[in-house]
Each structure stands twice: as structure tokens, then as C-alpha cells.
Amino acid sequence: MNAAPNVHEERVSPEYRVILWLAALGFFMQALDATIVNTALPAIAYSLHVDPMQTHDVVIAYVLTVAALIPVSGWLADRFGIKTVYLLAIVIFTLASLGCALAQTYNQLIVGRVFQGIGGAFLLPVARLALLRILPRNQFLAAMGFIGIPGLIGPMIGPTLGGFMVEYASWHWIFLINVPIGILGLIFTCTHMPNARLEHLPPFDYLGFILLVICMVALTLGLEGFSQGTWSIWQVFGVLSLGIVTGVIYVWHAIRDSRAIFRPELFRNVRFKVGIIGNAVTRLGSASMPFILPLTLQLALGFSPFQAGLMMIPLVFGSIVIKRFATQAISRYGYYRILSINTVLVGVGIMSFAALHLHPNVYTQSIHFFLFGCVNSMQFTAMNTVTLKDLNTAQAANGNSLLSMVMNSCMSMGVALVGVLLHYFEKIGIHHAPLWSFQWTYLVLGLMTVLASLVFRRLKYLKPTYPGQL
Length: 470
Known about the structure:
Elements (H helix, E strand, L loop, with lengths): L2 H8 L6 H20 L4 H8 L7 H25 L1 H21 L3 H29 L5 H29 L4 H4 L1 H15 L13 H23 L4 H24 L13 H17 L2 H12 L4 H48 L9 H27 L4 H36 L5 H19 L18
């Protein structure tokens, strides 16, 4: 009898609908761009005269830039105003998309992707902050549920749309499509977005930010330099060491400075610590799948770009379907059982793609992709909720930013790791077919993910908790 008023209270009032759609537009642009490029990589490589097996820079440049700028996005929005920063983000993202489409060389494209990442890094965090600052608190949950829909639609249509454009137009259109969307966003941001800001803002931790950026970039570039085969082992070791050393210095800095971006007190929460470490290790393997699968389908199995894009739909559909049951499963069996078993299933699922060529037809391949999408989505849902569930109100925003940074940085390092593995197996298997390199890469990535299940064993000794307490 009391449910109806609550439902009514959760609806977003008409005066906030345009802001809601603006936030959803930013979320859609970011989610679409993160996936639409994957099926176009071989076509981009042939057009710009580079090895298709070495095109992971296109993905890394974007994802790594997003990861590096996440810590500063909220502070800039509070300092200069949500409207100002959101407007600037759309302008940078739109112009960078145009620059990517006009790129005449591979290096020009990489520069364009970096600027796309600068714009994309602010789209989602600032959109979420706008809803939090502007909407009444009792409408925030409904608003977040609404803008989450584009986040699901973008990855579903991105690979297929990218493949369609490559096959029936040219790869340039995967970037040009952002231009009219960006112009629409600019118009409505100028006319409807209030410039909410905070007057008394604490100083930003510039030193900590610089240390984190150097750490992430050095670790990714070290792997990237190794995969390209152009760096000596000492250069690779030196850059990786720089990343590790700056990471250690940041920890020392965070312990001493109360203004640090991410305080070490977060890691006193055992579930948060296990969740962050588990996310980092697991995503090195699983988060690179949207990158390597379209390459496998096109370069090793002879699929067209459009066909490869269509094959990604069952994977994303499986991710969406399982979300409906994820909370129920976690509530019934607990985080320890779900993460211990499901992490192994994700690892085995990754290894199973080594046998992708053995399917008798596309229908069984689609079922294969769908099932992997289910276990992969269950993994992300369980890892993310166990990471954040026990944080108090004061820690929630900080913990969520750190989780987002870890997710994106590990995705960039995972893609770089795929490049390392493909380069290595291509080199030692020079007389084998291209599929051979992909098969061994899947086996290594899968084994790494299976071993990541050991991280979640620490949850066995904690008091059981349930999603109702989130």
C-alpha cells in the first residue's frame, strides 16, 4: 500500500528532464566510443599502413587518458562549475573526433585519441556529479537508472555499428558520428545546464595526481614498448621500474599528506582492498576481450568487419540479461562463493576462445559469446559491489573514483599485455597460421584470470553480508 508514493517520488521531475538527457548523452558518447573502434582496427591499420596486430595503441591512448584524468574530473567541476567543464568536455571530445576522422597518419590518429580521452574522461563523472548536485536526492536513483541505459546500449551497438560503417562506408565515419551528437549536446548544455560549483573547495593534490599519472603511463608504456619490439629489454625494464617507483612514492605521499587524492585509510576496509586487488588482476585478462575478439574474428577466422561486429551482440546481450539475476545470486550464495567460482569460469571462458574455430556454425559461436557475456558481467557486478559496499558516506566518492581509475588503467594495461603476447607468439610461431598466436594468447590470459580467484579467498574469513546492506 505504501509502495506507490515511493515510486512517484523516485521519478525525475519534468524540469530536470533536459539535464537528465544531457547526462545520458554524455554517457552514450563515452560508452559508444569505447567500443565502436574495436571492429574497425584492421581497416584502420590497412588504411594507415601499419600492422593490424599492433593497433592496440588506438585503444590504449583513449582508455589510459580517461584513467589518468578521472581523479581530477570532480575537483575541476566543483572549482569551475559543472556547466563550464561539461561544455569543455563536449567541445574537446567533438573536435578530437573530427581530428581522428581527418588523420592522415597513424601517429596523428593516436594524438586525436588522446584528446578524445581528455574529453571522455569528464563526460561520465561530470554528468553523474551534475545529477548529484542539481537533482533532489530522492530523484537521484531514478536518474542514475535512466542514464545507465545508454551505457548498456552503447557497447551493444558500438561494435556492430563500427563494422557496418567500415564495410559499407569507411572507418572515418566511426569518429564523424560523434560530431552531430556533440553539436546537439553543446546546444542543450549552453541553454539548460546550470553552472553549479562549490565556493570553499580544498586545494587539489597536484603532487599525488602527477605521481599517479606517471605510474599508470609508465606501466602501460613499458608493456607497450615491449610489444612493439622497438625497445631494448633495459629500456622496458627502466620504464616499468619508473612506474613501480612512482607508485611506491605515491603511497608514501598519501600516508603523510591528508589532502592526498586517495587516502590509505580506504585499504583498512578488507573488502575494499580485496575488491581493488581482485579487480586489477582479473581485468588484466577479461577487460581486453572486446579488443582481441574482433581481431581474432577478422584476422584469423576471415569474418568481415560487419560480421565481427554482429558477433559481439550476443556477448553484450548476455551481460545485460545476467544483471537481472546477479544480485539474487550474490544474496543467496555470498560474495566468496560467487567470486571464487565465477572467476575460474571467466578464466576458462577466455581460454575456450582458443577453440573458437571448432564451432560448426555461427549459431553455436553466438551461444559461446552469450555464455561468456553472462559470466563476465556477473564477475564485474560482484567485484564492483564487494569493493564499495562497506564504505561509509565520507569514503564512497573517493573509493568510487579509485575503482574507476583502476578499471580503466587495468583495461589499458590489459590491451597492452595482449599486444605483448600476440607479438611474442607471432615471433616464435612464425611458421604457424595467425590463429595460433591468438590461441596461445587466450590460454595465457585465461590462466592469469583463473589464478586471480585466489585473491578472493580472503573473503571466506569475513562475516557474510548481503546486497540489502549495500
